[in-house]
Every structure is written in structure tokens, then in C-alpha cells.
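Researcher: Here's a chain I'd like modeled. Treat it as a single chain, no partners, no ligands.
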Amino acid sequence: MRTIGRQKVRTAYPTVLAIGLLWLFAASVWAGGFSVQQARLVRQAEDYFLYADVDYQLPPAVQEALTNNVPITLVVELKVRRARRLQWDEVVIHKKLRYHLRYHALSKHYQVQLEGSGSPRTLPTLEAAVQSLGSLRELNIAAADRLMLGIAYKARLRAYLDFEALPLPLRAVAYLNPQWHLDSPWYRWTFEKS
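Model: Modeled as a single isolated chain. C-alpha cells:
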């Protein structure tokens, strides 16, 4: 009986290897993704505002889901830390901005909406919607009194597709398909309160 068990393992191993290689090949064919091109926090009056440019390259699988009326949620995550010498860095600001991207088949337009804001922006093409999503301007992040004068802060920003916001039947497919694994590297910079 032991030889039968080993034989099953030997025949299953090439299958698992082939699936893994196929997955890696599919991931290498799609070279797109998300990247933060630039970001900065600007103090205006008594608040800090985020200005950033994010390059969203949506793969064919995501574009197809959108045109089939599947809403997509993209998250822009900002962390600001104050460095401390003998302790862990203190997280001063941690904000997640959730954007919903939808296609309306009747009007043949795309809608972009920041969660918790007013009405959505309606755009005629997917390219216009993606460009609108990538241009972050004057987003109120925090009151200026949350930061101290003369202290250096480390900020970082990233963008990613939220798997958990997808409809349940599509979620399993998204976890297994590398075209859905959209996550930018952290964009990092330092600044001082002015």
C-alpha cells in the first residue's frame, strides 16, 4: 500500500508543478499594475492636504468585469509616522481612501466615487475614469495640529484593489488569477511641519 501512496504523490507532483508554472507564466504576461508616481502633503491654513499621482494599469480581466457591471473598489492608503529613538515609530496618521469604480450599461458611462463623499463623477470612457482616479488633489487628510513643529515625519502611500469588496462568486476567481493582484509598492518621502 505504501508504494501506491508514493505513486499517487509522484503523479500529482508534475500536475502541481505544471499549474504553478502556468500561474507564473500568466503573471509574467501581464506586466501592468499600480504605481504611485509622486505624492506630497501640503499644509493649507489649518489642515494637511494630499496631492498624488497614481498610475492605474487595469488588466483585461478587471476591465471585462467592469463592463459586466461588477463594481471595483480601489484603496489609497496613507501612513505618516513620527520617528522615535528608543521606541517603535509612532503612527500619527493612517488613512484609507476607498474609491468605487462602476460602469453603467444604460448610459455607457463610468462612475468614480470616493466613499463617504457626495455624488459620483460620471466619465465617458474607462481611460478618463482611470485618469480621474489617479489624480488625487486637495484631499483633506488631517488637522495641522496633529503634527509637531521641527519633527521629521516619514510618509508612505500605496494603492491596491480591494478583493474583499468584490462579489463573492468573483472573489475566489480573483484570488487565483494573477491579473487581479494589483498592489503598488509603497511610495515613501519625509517632511517636516511648516
